Amino acid sequence: MSAVSPNQAPDLAWLLKGLAEEVPVIRGSVLLSSDGMLKAAHGLDRASSEQFAALASGLFSIARSAGTKFDNSNEVRQVVAELKSSQLFISWAGFNSVLAVLAKGEADPAVVGFEMARLIKAVRPFLDTAARPPATAPGDRNP
């Protein structure tokens, strides 16, 4: 099952499907903008994909804050969370983009992380998310 936002080409969902085929322990994955907007998903219904994107964005943001405070850098390579019967992997995927994967509990973290990194490296320019224009206040006029 794939969910794709209306403004995103379906080929990104195809990439996520390919990742799941390469690593069968992957239950679902999402590609999102760093501020939590869903770009593409595979393996989850639309509502779960959007919720997973929001959660991944929050965890990624917390990791960036920790890096800024304790590592003198806001660069995050990967966030991993081990749950009761699942594992979450969240990785930087290019400019303003994050890749999040939900895997089964028995997944080998090294394999999942390696395949995520391989996918990101292979198609990084296509994963970038354009910066959003600054918001304008009500009543402001564009010349």
UniProtKB/TrEMBL annotation:
Record's protein name: Putative regulator of Ras-like GTPase activity (Roadblock/LC7/MglB family)
SUPFAM superfamilies, A to Z: Roadblock/LC7 domain
One Pfam match: Robl_LC7
Organism from which the protein derives: Actinoallomurus bryophytorum
PANTHER family reported for this sequence: SERINE PROTEASE INHIBITOR RV3364C (PTHR36222:SF1)
Domain of life of the organism encoding this protein: Bacteria
Residues in Roadblock/LAMTOR2 domain copies: 13-103
